[in-house]
Specification:
Layout lengths: L6 E6 L10 H7 L4 E5 L15 E6 L9 H13 L3 E6 L9 H10 L4 E4 L4 H8 L13 E5 L8 H6 L2 E5 L5 H10 L7 E6 L7 E6 L3 H4 L8 E5 L5 H5 L4 H4 L20 E7 L5 H8 L3 E11 L5 H8 L6 E4 L2 H13 L11 E4 L2 H8 L15 H5 L11 E7 L5 H9 L3 E11 L6 H8 L5 E4 L2 H14 L4 H7 L4 E4 L2 H11 L4 E2 L5 H12 L1
Helix pairs in contact: 2-3, 12-13, 17-19
Length: about 525
């Protein structure tokens, strides 16, 4: 493609939820080839792009990992010169502290075609949604908007004289802002409002004075925030406090085919999974109308050594039973079986027990039918319903499992009844290096309704990734996750949820992904 066929749209997403996106913005997103987006946008906006659209997260949030502005400029130019329709999606309005000039200058220098489309700025819209008019014929005839990103560069005399002062990005600098304003002559009884998550259903507003606001917000995480300072704050009680949820228009249509009457319509569900997990679970949730976000909480890799598994396979004829408790165990066991030049015929005379329908399906794909599946699809039930319970003391069982250990209760119960259980590492599950920034932003913005966990490992790694990828404390995350329901596939996963996250809201009645889907549907029916 030639350079002239590409085009860049610098687009404002508006503040808060996706409902504040302009109609023009919706049209632009629906035709994007590449989307380069900032933090603090509603993750649901990504569903408005075509399925083939490339998504590039740029960050651009204070004290968080972000892509350098020069790199963003180059991305815009590179994709445009490839003939692609590129959308640069920014929170709020791109011309209000959005560095639009830098990106436009880079596009001009490269002779790239571009358009700039405005969005609702939080500086103007957040006060309105909090019931505060920024201007008034008597109290305020002008508005000053500043960013607290570089306090030393601010004109404090101008700010003190301003009838309505709006400060963006000032949550972490509140003590310094209050001190500096008073030091330059702003009276201590001046009214101030702090609006957190303006335009989101979880919007919070604190109203006080320069003398009281620090004690009112002590212990609170004030980001993202918009501050309004001046007499107009007093009009909030006069005008009444809008209900943000009531102000939101009907949801915009997305690219999915779900209907409004679907069981999970309007819900955003986060699926924690392994990097290689099949999409069936996501598809079943989307079929019910949910918006599904996926987070790789497990990376499945080979064990540190194949020696133990290879040695056990070499002696397969000495075993009475083969226990397979996951699809990963099936795949890696047969991979090594084939590596030794053997196939399913090597299992002649060995009975196979599996846990769960997915594991059974993986085994059947190898041309084998399991001899036993416990009725409740959990490994701990395998011993209770085992068909040769009376003869366990005579049995020798092979158990290929995750290298880091697992199903300890199963092994303990079998061993206690006299069985010989040979455990060998068949694969390893490890925690990814970091959480997807898009998912982290959605969690921080409290836009996720349900988080699903299909194993204890996904719970453990989810919690590790939160600690690793965010500066928020454990107490902060307890509060941030409070509106979100936690859904578990079964008792062991529930136990881990209670240990790390202190609760579980939904547990599958049938311990399968299908059962988990049904339990979520029942909860919201």
């Amino acid at each position: 493609m030639s350079q002239t066929e590409g085009k860049v749209y610098i687009l404002g997403a508006g503040l808060g939820a996706m409902d504040f996106l302009t109609v023009a913005g919706q049209v632009i997103l629906s035709t994007a080839d590449v989307l380069i987006y900032d933090a603090l946008i509603d993750p649901k906006l990504l569903t408005l792009t075509p399925k083939t659209c490339i998504h590039v997260w740029a960050g651009k949030r204070g004290q968080s990992v972000s892509t350098p502005q020069a790199d963003i400029n180059q991305l815009l130019v590179t994709y445009c010169q490839q003939g692609k329709k590129v959308v640069r999606l920014k929170s709020g309005d791109p011309a209000i502290f959005g560095r639009v000039a830098s990106e436009v200058q880079a596009l001009q220098a490269a002779n790239c075609t571009y358009e700039v489309w405005p969005g609702l700025s939080s500086a103007l819209a957040a006060p309105t949604l909090a019931g505060i008019p920024l201007t008034d014929p008597i109290l305020s005839r002008s508005v000053t908007i500043v960013s607290a990103h570089e306090l030393a560069a601010l004109d404090w005399e101008l700010m003190v004289r301003s009838e309505s002062l709006v400060i963006l990005m000032g949550g972490r600098s509140l003590p310094t802002l209050i001190q500096s304003l008073q030091a330059h002559g702003k009276p201590a009884d001046t009214a101030i409002a702090i609006i957190k998550w303006g335009g989101w259903p979880q919007q919070q507003v604190w109203v006080g004075t320069l003398a009281t606001i620090l004690s009112q917000t002590q212990g609170e995480t004030l980001s993202p925030t918009v501050m309004v300072i001046g007499k107009v704050v007093q009009l909030r009680e006069t005008l009444g406090i809008p209900n943000v949820s009531a102000l939101l228009p009907p949801p915009l249509p997305t690219m999915s085919n779900s209907s409004e009457s679907s069981s999970l319509a309007d819900l955003t569900i986060l699926v924690t999974r392994s990097a290689s997990q099949a999409p069936a679970f996501r598809q079943s949730l989307e079929a019910q109308g949910a918006t599904v976000l996926e987070m790789a909480a497990l990376e499945i890799v080979p064990p540190s050594s194949w020696s133990e598994l290879d040695g056990a396979i070499a002696q397969l004829s000495t075993f009475d039973w083969l226990f397979l408790t996951s699809a990963n165990g099936v795949e890696y066991f047969f991979e090594r079986l084939n590596a030794q030049g053997k196939d399913a015929r090597a299992l002649a005379g060995v009975k196979i027990a599996v846990v769960g329908r997915k594991t059974a399906a993986s085994l059947q794909a190898k041309g084998l039918t399991p001899d036993f599946i416990p009725p409740n699809y959990v490994a701990d039930d395998l011993v209770t319903h085992f068909p040769e319970l009376d003869g366990l003391s005579r049995l020798r069982c092979l158990f290929p499992r995750v290298e880091s250990g697992g199903r300890e209760v199963l092994v303990q119960q079998l061993t206690a009844k006299g069985a010989t259980v040979v455990e060998v590492p068949a694969y390893q599950s490890q925690c990814p290096a970091q959480m997807d920034p898009q998912i982290l932003a959605a969690l921080e913005q409290q836009t996720i309704d349900v988080i699903t966990f299909a194993s204890s490992k996904t719970v453990e790694h989810f919690w590790q990734l939160l600690q690793r990828s965010s500066q928020s404390t454990e107490a902060d995350w307890t509060q941030i996750l409070k509106p979100t329901k936690l859904a578990s596939i079964g008792p062991q996963t529930t136990k881990t949820c209670h240990a790390l996250l202190n609760r579980v809201d939904i547990e599958a009645q049938e311990y399968t992904l299908e059962g988990l889907t049904q339990s979520i549907i029942q909860t919201y029916s």
